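pls design
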């Protein structure tokens, strides 16, 4: 419910600011909200939320780099963040599995 409300509010804010690529920008708001909520809940899936936001941001910065190539390094930066978030998810899942194994033995 809060995710939908946040998305709608920010869509209108972004539209009022004449944000380019408003669809991807709005999706980025949604994925950021989801990732933050999962972080707050201490869910291992927080990293997948941030990874999905990284994908959206990679698309946004690549679109921006078509107009000005100076933005391309920012897209690469988010590619690194994407890899880091996937690593975080895998590491957290391994720790969960080890903790579960330790509790059962």
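designed seq:
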């Amino acid at each position: 419910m809060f995710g939908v409300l946040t998305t709608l509010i920010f869509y209108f804010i972004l539209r009022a600011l004449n944000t380019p690529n408003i669809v991807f920008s709005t999706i980025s708001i949604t994925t950021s909200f989801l990732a933050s909520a999962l972080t707050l809940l201490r869910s291992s899936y927080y990293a997948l939320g941030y990874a999905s936001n990284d994908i959206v941001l990679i698309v946004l910065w690549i679109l921006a780099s078509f107009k000005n190539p100076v933005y391309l390094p920012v897209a690469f930066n988010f590619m690194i963040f994407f890899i880091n978030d996937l690593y975080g998810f895998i590491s957290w899942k391994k720790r969960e599995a080890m903790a579960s194994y330790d509790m059962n033995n």
